[in-house]
Amino acid sequence: MNPEPTGAIELIRPPSGRRPRLALFDFDGTLSLIREGWPDVMIPMMVEILSPLKTGLAAEQLRKTVAEDVAQSTGQVTLIQMIRLAERVAEFGGAPLDPRQYKAEYDRRLRAHIAGRRNGLASGAIAPDAMLLTGAQPMLEALASRGVAMALASGTDDPDVREEAEVLGVARFFGPRIYGAKDDYAASGKKRVVERLLAASGIAGRDLLVFGDGFVEIECVKTVGGYAVGVASDEAAGGGRINAWKRERLLGAGADMIVPDFAGHARLAQLLLGP
Question: Hey, how many other C-beta atoms are within 10 angstroms of the C-beta on 201?
Answer without folding.
Answer: 15
